[in-house]
Design brief:
Elements: H1 3-12, H2 14-21, E1 28-32, E2 35-45, E3 50-59, E4 62-68, H3 72-87
Antiparallel strand pairs: 1-2, 2-3, 3-4
Helix pairs in contact: 1-2
Length: 89
């Protein structure tokens, strides 16, 4: 999330920010060793008919993903464990 989005949320609220910037305001960058390796995003899943958190991780040209129904932190923890497992097979 950029400083512009954070300032807009402070002034106008999260709902107004979603209308202006879209769902990107809910995205959380996944950082490992000082670099961004993925993103956690929240969206309405049409098959499950509810909001889900999805972690999308890219490592050596491969893309991995994980869905969670309860918390973004679960997705961040999954991504951290996945990166560690991929680095030390």
């Amino acid at each position: 999330m950029t400083q512009e989005i954070r300032d807009y949320i402070r002034r106008h609220g999260r709902t107004a920010a979603r209308k202006r910037f879209g769902d990107i305001i809910d995205n959380i960058d996944i950082k490992f060793d000082g670099r961004t390796v993925g993103v956690v995003k929240r969206y309405w899943h049409p098959q499950f008919t509810c909001y889900v958190w999805e972690a999308v991780l890219t490592h050596d040209g491969q893309t991995y993903s994980h869905l969670d129904f309860h918390s973004s932190q679960v997705c961040v923890d999954w991504a951290e464990q996945k990166i560690l497992a991929l680095q030390k097979p």
